[in-house]
Amino acid sequence: MTVIEAIIIAIVEGITEFLPVSSTGHMIITQELLGMKIDDFVKAFTVNIQFGAILSVVVLYWKRFFQSLQFYYKLFVAFIPAAVIGFLAGDFIDSMLESVVVVAVMLVLGGVVLVFVDKWFNKPAADQTVTYPTAFKIGLFQCIAMIPGVSRSAATIIGGMTQKLDRKTAAEFSFFLAVPTMFAAAGYKLMQNYQTITAENIDILLIGNAVAFVVAMIAIKSFISFLTKYGFRVFGYYRILVGLAILIMIALGYDLNIA
């Protein structure tokens, strides 16, 4: 992996991690378009630059992370479903990460959902308090995002909206929930693949995290404002177009499966 490739992948991660478009799916597609050789370090890099994105949430919302212990208890309750399923089905999930077809199909299906989700669930309650049952149900929705091409952000925000949270409250809880979820996933992968990080490539990993941090901060600020004003529909159309374009390329004989 070159420095330029690392910066491009980190920019994609920073932009897409908190948008409802699937960061994993976009990084898989970007790696293919760049013609990258997918070795163990690249796989570790793709996961571990999430540390930079995580830090952006903590920096932007640092006051919220010191408000009360209940804040952390609720995040833990929401985190449990993904932790359990991730542990039990980790190998199967990893096997799907190499399929661009899976990513493309889920981009399309998820896009269709986003086109209509504001009509289905945009009926917020007067009380926007996230309760423990609400947190757990949002955590169940997060499990859907283990399928490549399903956005973690979209799944959890929609999960919140089904519990009558408004778009802004649901999006912010989704960002908060990303911290333990992404930290656990990135930390686990780091322990599995620490031997791939050497003195020769650690600078690439540090650069990737720095770029992801800066870009994610900008993306979060922009997304909250856009989502509150316009909703999900534009993201839905974008997902459908990208997914269909990939499926058409595959149908025309392009080999887009990452090996």
TrEMBL record:
One of its GO terms (molecular function) is undecaprenyl-diphosphatase activity. It catalyses: di-trans,octa-cis-undecaprenyl diphosphate + H2O = di-trans,octa-cis-undecaprenyl phosphate + phosphate + H(+). It is a multi-pass membrane protein. The keyword Cell wall biogenesis/degradation applies. InterPro entries: UppP. One of its GO terms (biological process) is regulation of cell shape. It is an enzyme of class 3 (hydrolase). Its EC number is 3.6.1.27. It is found in: Cell membrane. Pfam families: BacA. Keywords: Antibiotic resistance, Cell membrane, Cell shape, Cell wall biogenesis/degradation, Hydrolase, Membrane, Peptidoglycan synthesis, Transmembrane, Transmembrane helix. The chain crosses the membrane at residues 41-62, 71-90, 96-117, 138-161, 173-191, 203-224, 236-254. GO terms for cellular component: plasma membrane. Bacitracin is thought to be involved in the inhibition of peptidoglycan synthesis by sequestering undecaprenyl diphosphate, thereby reducing the pool of lipid carrier available. Belongs to the UppP family. Catalyzes the dephosphorylation of undecaprenyl diphosphate (UPP). Confers resistance to bacitracin. NCBIfam families: PRK00281.1-2, PRK00281.1-4, undec_PP_bacA. This is Undecaprenyl-diphosphatase. It comes from Lentimicrobium saccharophilum. The lineage of its organism: Bacteria, Pseudomonadati, Bacteroidota, Bacteroidia, Bacteroidales.
